[in-house]
Amino acid sequence: MIQMAHILADQWLSERADNVGKIKDAIARMNDAPVQLDQASMIAALIQEGLTPVCVKCGRLSSQNMAVGDVRPGDEANWICRTCASDNSQYGHCRCCGENLLFSVDELDDQGLCQEHAGEFDLSPEEEEDWESYIENVQKGD
To answer: Which of 26, 58, 61, 84 has the fewest CB atoms within 10 Å, i.e. the most exposed one?
Structure first.
């Protein structure tokens, strides 16, 4: 199964508790730090926004931008803002991967599945025969 959480909120540092904890640890080690421990989440959000690539369509910089495709940290990827991603003629989500991963429509098959999940809902000849038999039996019962 694909690990989808890596794209949901990280570009490649997020406000996950372990990242914020590391920032808090760094602040605590500083003498006369210009920031306070309770600002660690804000610092993580600023870093995340600064590390998020701009939208390849409109140039918008936002921490809400999404990578196109199932990419891992360090992979080359195009990034799209939420507004541009809402163009259903250009982008979509795999029915199995969900809303966390964005794909170009060219990467999705006619069932709305990415390459990894292609054929996920196809029935084997045996399964198809079982369903036909089941439907036939249900119809006889009416």
So the answer is: 58
Of 113, 79, 107, the C-alpha closest to 10 is: 79
Q: Is 5 exposed, middle or buried (0-12, 13-18, 19+ CB in 10 A)?
A: exposed
Domain that holds residue 100: 5-141
pLDDT, tens digit, 9 for 90 and up, residues 48-77: 777 788 899 999 988 888 899 988 777 788
Residue 111 pLDDT more than 50? yes
How far apart (Å, rounded) are the C-alpha atoms in residues 81 and 53? 10
Summarised one tens digit per residue, pLDDT across range 118-135 is: 888 888 888 888 888 888
Place of tokens 């602040």: 27
Contact 118, 94 (CB under 8 A): no
Longest Cα separation, the chain: 81
Q: How far apart are CA 46 and CA 28, in angstroms?
A: 19
User: Among candidates 17, 39, 42, which has minimal Cα distance to 30?
Assistant: 39
Q: Which two tokens stand for residue 60?
A: 């918008």
